[in-house]
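Consider this pair:
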Amino acid sequence: MLNNTEIQSLIPHRYPFLLVDKILELEPGKKAVGIKNVTANEPHFQGHFPEHAIMPGILIVEALAQTAGIAVSVNEKSESKLGVLSGIDGMKFKRKVVPGDALKLEAEILVSKLGLIKAKVTASVDGQTAAEGEIKIMMTDLNRK
Protein backbone atom coordinates (compact mmCIF):
# COMPACT_ATOMS: atom_id res chain seq x y z
CA MET A 1 0.00 0.00 0.00
CA LEU A 2 1.21 3.52 -0.84
CA ASN A 3 0.07 6.70 0.88
CA ASN A 4 -0.28 10.15 -0.70
CA THR A 5 3.32 11.18 -0.01
CA GLU A 6 4.68 7.97 -1.56
CA ILE A 7 2.44 8.48 -4.62
CA GLN A 8 3.88 11.99 -5.07
CA SER A 9 7.36 10.52 -5.17
CA LEU A 10 6.34 8.41 -8.19
CA ILE A 11 4.27 10.81 -10.34
CA PRO A 12 4.56 14.59 -10.82
CA HIS A 13 0.90 15.51 -10.23
CA ARG A 14 -0.02 17.78 -7.33
CA TYR A 15 -3.22 19.25 -5.91
CA PRO A 16 -5.65 19.99 -7.39
CA PHE A 17 -4.69 17.54 -10.14
CA LEU A 18 -3.40 14.62 -8.09
CA LEU A 19 -6.39 12.31 -8.43
CA VAL A 20 -5.17 9.20 -6.58
CA ASP A 21 -5.31 9.28 -2.78
CA LYS A 22 -3.79 5.89 -2.02
CA ILE A 23 -2.67 2.69 -3.68
CA LEU A 24 -4.08 -0.54 -2.25
CA GLU A 25 -2.23 -3.00 -4.50
CA LEU A 26 0.89 -2.63 -6.61
CA GLU A 27 2.61 -5.13 -8.88
CA PRO A 28 5.37 -2.98 -10.40
CA GLY A 29 5.12 -2.87 -14.18
CA LYS A 30 1.96 -4.99 -14.16
CA LYS A 31 -0.92 -3.64 -12.09
CA ALA A 32 -2.06 -0.98 -9.63
CA VAL A 33 -5.28 -0.57 -7.65
CA GLY A 34 -5.97 2.78 -6.05
CA ILE A 35 -8.62 4.92 -4.42
CA LYS A 36 -9.81 8.45 -5.18
CA ASN A 37 -12.04 9.82 -2.42
CA VAL A 38 -14.46 12.14 -4.17
CA THR A 39 -15.29 15.20 -2.05
CA ALA A 40 -17.75 18.04 -2.53
CA ASN A 41 -15.06 20.72 -2.12
CA GLU A 42 -13.20 19.79 -5.32
CA PRO A 43 -13.01 22.79 -7.68
CA HIS A 44 -14.68 21.13 -10.71
CA PHE A 45 -17.93 20.64 -8.77
CA GLN A 46 -18.46 24.43 -8.73
CA GLY A 47 -19.42 24.24 -12.40
CA HIS A 48 -20.10 20.52 -13.12
CA PHE A 49 -22.91 20.78 -12.05
CA PRO A 50 -23.58 22.94 -8.96
CA GLU A 51 -27.05 21.55 -8.26
CA HIS A 52 -26.22 17.95 -9.29
CA ALA A 53 -22.49 17.44 -8.78
CA ILE A 54 -21.01 14.78 -11.10
CA MET A 55 -17.29 14.06 -11.46
CA PRO A 56 -16.35 14.84 -15.08
CA GLY A 57 -15.61 11.73 -17.12
CA ILE A 58 -12.29 13.07 -18.30
CA LEU A 59 -11.16 13.42 -14.67
CA ILE A 60 -12.08 9.78 -14.09
CA VAL A 61 -9.92 8.91 -17.11
CA GLU A 62 -7.11 11.07 -15.72
CA ALA A 63 -7.33 9.31 -12.35
CA LEU A 64 -7.08 5.97 -14.17
CA ALA A 65 -4.10 7.21 -16.20
CA GLN A 66 -2.36 8.33 -13.00
CA THR A 67 -2.96 4.87 -11.52
CA ALA A 68 -1.43 3.25 -14.61
CA GLY A 69 1.46 5.70 -14.37
CA ILE A 70 2.08 4.60 -10.79
CA ALA A 71 2.15 0.96 -11.90
CA VAL A 72 4.93 1.63 -14.40
CA SER A 73 6.75 4.48 -12.67
CA VAL A 74 8.53 2.11 -10.31
CA ASN A 75 10.26 0.57 -13.35
CA GLU A 76 10.38 3.67 -15.60
CA LYS A 77 11.59 6.15 -12.94
CA SER A 78 13.65 8.88 -14.54
CA GLU A 79 13.87 12.58 -13.73
CA SER A 80 13.95 13.40 -17.47
CA LYS A 81 10.82 11.40 -18.42
CA LEU A 82 7.17 12.36 -18.17
CA GLY A 83 4.22 10.11 -18.99
CA VAL A 84 1.48 11.87 -20.97
CA LEU A 85 -1.90 10.52 -21.96
CA SER A 86 -1.75 9.76 -25.67
CA GLY A 87 -4.86 7.72 -26.36
CA ILE A 88 -8.23 6.56 -25.02
CA ASP A 89 -9.84 3.50 -26.61
CA GLY A 90 -13.33 2.15 -26.06
CA MET A 91 -13.97 4.11 -22.86
CA LYS A 92 -17.49 3.60 -21.58
CA PHE A 93 -19.10 5.47 -18.69
CA LYS A 94 -21.72 3.41 -16.88
CA ARG A 95 -22.41 5.16 -13.58
CA LYS A 96 -22.27 8.68 -12.16
CA VAL A 97 -19.48 9.46 -9.70
CA VAL A 98 -20.58 11.96 -7.06
CA PRO A 99 -19.22 13.54 -3.87
CA GLY A 100 -18.98 10.96 -1.10
CA ASP A 101 -17.99 8.13 -3.46
CA ALA A 102 -14.79 6.17 -2.98
CA LEU A 103 -13.71 5.63 -6.59
CA LYS A 104 -11.73 2.41 -6.97
CA LEU A 105 -9.17 2.72 -9.78
CA GLU A 106 -7.70 -0.38 -11.44
CA ALA A 107 -5.03 -0.41 -14.12
CA GLU A 108 -3.60 -3.55 -15.70
CA ILE A 109 -0.58 -2.92 -17.92
CA LEU A 110 -1.00 -4.72 -21.26
CA VAL A 111 2.06 -3.31 -23.08
CA SER A 112 5.08 -1.40 -21.85
CA LYS A 113 7.82 -1.03 -24.45
CA LEU A 114 9.66 1.67 -26.37
CA GLY A 115 8.13 4.36 -24.18
CA LEU A 116 4.53 3.34 -24.93
CA ILE A 117 2.29 2.02 -22.18
CA LYS A 118 -1.10 0.52 -22.89
CA ALA A 119 -3.39 -0.33 -19.98
CA LYS A 120 -6.81 -1.83 -19.41
CA VAL A 121 -8.53 0.40 -16.85
CA THR A 122 -11.64 0.21 -14.70
CA ALA A 123 -13.16 2.66 -12.24
CA SER A 124 -15.86 1.46 -9.86
CA VAL A 125 -17.91 2.54 -6.87
CA ASP A 126 -19.21 -0.04 -4.40
CA GLY A 127 -18.55 -2.82 -6.91
CA GLN A 128 -20.46 -1.06 -9.72
CA THR A 129 -18.45 -0.17 -12.81
CA ALA A 130 -18.35 3.59 -13.39
CA ALA A 131 -15.97 3.58 -16.38
CA GLU A 132 -13.87 1.10 -18.31
CA GLY A 133 -11.69 1.03 -21.39
CA GLU A 134 -8.07 1.20 -22.50
CA ILE A 135 -5.62 4.07 -22.30
CA LYS A 136 -2.23 4.76 -23.83
CA ILE A 137 0.56 6.71 -22.15
CA MET A 138 3.65 7.92 -23.97
CA MET A 139 6.84 8.50 -22.02
CA THR A 140 8.29 11.80 -23.25
CA ASP A 141 11.78 13.16 -22.81
CA LEU A 142 11.68 16.46 -20.93
CA ASN A 143 15.13 17.43 -22.24
CA ARG A 144 14.01 17.19 -25.87
CA LYS A 145 12.31 20.08 -27.65
Remarks:
- Strands lie at 22-27, 31-37, 81-93, 102-113, 116-125, 128-141.
- The longest strand covers residues 128-141.
- Helices lie at 4-8, 57-76.
